[in-house]
Amino acid sequence: MNRWKRIFKSKFVFGLAVLIVFIYLNNSSLLTKPRGGEPLLLAHRGLAQTFTMEGITNDTCTAERIYEPEHPYLENTIPSMQAAFQAGADIVELDIKPTKDGQFAVFHDWTLDCRTNVTGKTIDYTMAELKNIDIGYGYTADNGQTYPFRGKGIGLMPALDEVLAHLPEQSFLIHIKSNDSGEGEQLAQFLSRLPEERLKQLAVYGGDEPIAALQSELPGIRVMSMATMKSCLIPYLAGGWTGYVPAACHNTELHIPEKIAPLLWGWPDRFLNRMEKAGTHVIVVGGDGSDFSSGFDTPEDIERLPDDYTGGIWTNRIDRIAPLYRDEG
Length: 329
What we know:
Low-confidence stretches: none
Organism: Paenibacillus spongiae
Domain GP-PDE: 59-325
Protein name: Glycerophosphodiester phosphodiesterase
Pfam family, one: GDPD
InterPro entries: GP_PDE_dom, PLC-like_Pdiesterase_TIM-brl
Helix content: 25-40%
CATH class of the domain at 59-75 and 95-167: Alpha Beta
Mean pLDDT: 91
Distance between the termini: 68 Å
Number of helices: 11
CATH topology of the domain at 59-75 and 95-167: TIM Barrel
Strand content: 5-15%
Order of helices and strands: HEHEEHHEHHEHEHEHEHEH
CATH architecture of the domain at 59-75 and 95-167: Alpha-Beta Barrel
């Protein structure tokens, strides 16, 4: 009996060792051919004014806490997007909100109260009326002593169709700022009028309900929500060590917090290769996932990424980050 136990034990240990070696060889980036190329740079809201994150909540008026301006651009405007692409962005993220006349305004906040000279929501106004407001009205870097953009933001809030027409060759990540399925349906109707080649340059993310509604109407478009992320990453964490890529990971968008990324099988290069083959964009965001708008905004932030990282990078300061890559060689 002892002899059979020893044989069984030795076979078990041998099999376990083989499994460990297989997992290592199948997931180690050290044994993967270098990917080469440069990272995909995603500029959050274009080239925007940034602000301190200390003590920030969902109700914080961020326009009232900006740093001393280093450039003249306001977030979610066509000039800021043009500047971001000129600086080296591959993709610009923008936020959309519905208007009274059935369009989408490109604007971030839930209400107009913080940044502008009017109150209420975008849905309370037509797009023509929104063009008359001053979106730079509320910005201050010195607790209200001066307002450097007041009077300079009139006419700068664009409609989504205006952005896509003005920058017809550029890629965008569109953010639905609600969990209203009706906004997903409305956006699907809008996007369905675009040529297929244009749709390939776009991706959409937001709440579970609008993204599900959008995806049901336009199943080919790249999307992301917490639900789509979980449907991809949970089974991948369970079986990705084999090289298995779940169907939910195909042709989608993944925003991976930097502190979670190392837990993914094959991170970074094997994972990136698998997702690229599946037609999926992988964007690394800062932190642990508690704030998906946290980005890599300084050279010191970039040092936290793996050496020779070539996936996507989320940044709030494309003007600082792009030169680290675009000026090389």
